[in-house]
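task queued by scheduler; priority normal; single chain, no ligands, no partner chains; default sampling; output format set to structure tokens
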Amino acid sequence: MSRPPQRRTPRRIVDGVLFLDKPVGISSNNALQKARWLLSAAKGGHTGTLDPMASGLLPLTFGEATKFSQTLLDADKAYDATVLLGVTTTTADAEGEVLACCPVDVSDAAIEAAIATLRGEIEQVPPMYSALKHHGKALYEYAREGIEIPREPRRVTIYRFELLERDGDSLKVRVECSKGTYVRTLASDLGALLGCGAHLTALRRTKIGPFGLDVSLPLADFEAVPAEERDGRLAPVDALLVHLPVLQLDAAQARSLTHGQPVQGCSGEPGCMVRAYEGEHFLGVATYGEEGELIPTRLVATGNR
């Protein structure tokens, strides 16, 4: 006998942000889809990928909050990582195939000196095993086919690169960096400077912008929350915008803004962005124009609820 088709749980409108602590072993998209399923959410996104071998902070956005994901895509980030000297791999991390093994004969002082040269504004060549696109195709797809694509170096800023602990050939390091930084490339470059090669064996993202792991929830813990209580674990739609100043509008101003019209009579520096509210209702993000008017930039559909 054939089984009756299983009914899918209907998706629903869910608005908010889940500061997830992603576990090792799953992709960022798999973590997102799991959280969407747990919430039965109609729409969701994430704010920058973590490789499957990496764990740590992965803010997920749902519903109207997805409109503000770019805020964290552009944010600075912090990581704790482990680097193994003496071994290079195809991917510059533990997921790749070993290319070479070299004896390691470097002092702590030499390591510290090499790390120091990788601080500040530096140029990084993005790895072939990355999601960057070339003619609409991810670089890792070319890499799997054995095709090497020339990549232009990109300027990134390493605000902090610190050796925390050394255990033989294994180094525990802490990195604070600008967007677009590949920590595995940093590990590979460190190994090249030391003349022995290196690759990344563990990575944990500890901070994105102003948010740290202290606000995060492990995926297993979120799954353990009763279904009817999961919405309560989400931060509000405007949670990613804490860096923007707040502007309160009266009813008439709010009505103009939510209808996509510039709001006159405001005072602010041209180009400055603000979070606009009517009382406790978040309306969206607006930007001051050349004449001091407030121009709608990105509004939320929930603003009038």
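post-processing summary
- The chain has a mean pLDDT of 91.
- Helices lie at 28-39, 70-73, 108-117, 139-144, 183-194, 219-224, 251-258.
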